[in-house]
Amino acid sequence: MTEPRWLTDDEREAWLRLMAVTMLLPNRLEQQLKRDAGLSHFEYYVLAMISECADRSLALTELASRTNSSLSRLSHVIARLEAQGLLTRAASPRDGRASIATLTDAGWAKVLASAPGHVEEVRSVVFDALSARQVSQLSDICGRMLATLDPHHRLLGLG
Amino acid sequence: MTEPRWLTDDEREAWLRLMAVTMLLPNRLEQQLKRDAGLSHFEYYVLAMISECADRSLALTELASRTNSSLSRLSHVIARLEAQGLLTRAASPRDGRASIATLTDAGWAKVLASAPGHVEEVRSVVFDALSARQVSQLSDICGRMLATLDPHHRLLGLG
DNA sequence: CGGTTTTAGTTGAAACGTCAAGTTAGCGGT
DNA sequence: ACCGCTAACTTGACGTTTCAACTAAAACCG
After folding, report:
1. From the list A10, A116, A120, which residue is nearest B136 (CB)?
2. Which residue ranges does the record assign to the HTH marR-type domain (chains A, B) (predicted)?
3. Which range marks the domain in which residue A134 is found?
């Protein structure tokens, strides 16, 4: 085996910081949502994804793609959310295998009530600290990384 | 309650991408380390942090800060790593409450063996996709976010 | 000193995520 | 129409993380 290509000092610095962000940011969002809405970030994200679809409905496989979760994990979470009355599951009329999750009025209300606090948190942690130019740089940089991490754009909507 | 400050289109785009990265990147690292070293990313990070200290030793509270974990989580993980013979726990001579974790030779060897593959993965996902200028931008941007996320620099060494 | 508070860590139970196995429905070829 | 194969989940067991309660040592303080 060959000598590994170690990181330069600049790369190492950038890496440690990126690492710190990926460790701290999810925690931060988690805490805010748990405290103010009683939802985990993943639960919120699931509800938010469904809420943006026509009829507030989405098939589980598609939902799993967009939330970067296994079908198994999603199935467990959907069961919990259903038990809380935030959504319902129904068989697809088109495909007997598929389940379609639909937000209830309570689920819709939950999203409406939770979104402002969540956005405020995102803004205060990320965007209040960055210039418009930096926002654009960040977008480009993440786009580059996603070319490797998510070559088929499974997460960003257009499956 | 007042109307929330929603995100602009550019901010929204940047946010979705950053989100995608923070969801996908940990997964990627996890898989590589699990496959090639039989360690979770957190376990690897714990061992790596200790390995960089004098005497390959570090007190648990300090380690918890640097790995962004609760003491409880760390305690469980340290117990598992100790059971695998990768490190040992000992009471601090200075402070009777403190435990100090020290890498064994096997633990040190594990870090040495695992690091190259891990660095290669980091390089292939992050740095191969970025120009030198973008690396510097990323570093700045993350630094800005960390001013809010980690104001006391708990993660980046100089506690 | 002696009592209170704070810090460091451990432990066990509950919650959550992952993994492997199973079920049912569509699909492709013959 | 039938057989095998794949896709879309579901389920239960297992491992990990979190949470709350606990112990013990140090620090503070009058």
Report:
1. A10
2. 11-147
3. 126-159
Mutate to test the interface with B, among A16, A24, A68, A125 (most CBs of B within 10 A): A24
Distance separating alpha carbons of residues A18 and B145, to the nearest angstrom: 10
> pLDDT digits over B61-81, tens only?
999 999 999 999 999 999 999
CATH code at position B81: 1.10.10.10
Angle among Cα A34, A38, A42 to the nearest 5 degrees reads 65
Chain D positions under 7 Å from a protein CB?
7-12, 16-21, 24-27
Closest residue on chain B to A150 (Cα): B24
The answer to the question of residue B49 being in a domain is: yes
Give the nearest partner residue to B149 out of A125, A148, A150, using CB atoms. A125
String of DSSP letters for B11-45: HHHHHHHHHHHHHHHHHHHHHHHHHHHS--HHHHH
| pLDDT, tens digit (0-9, with 9 covering 90-100), for A22-46 | 999 999 999 999 999 999 999 999 9
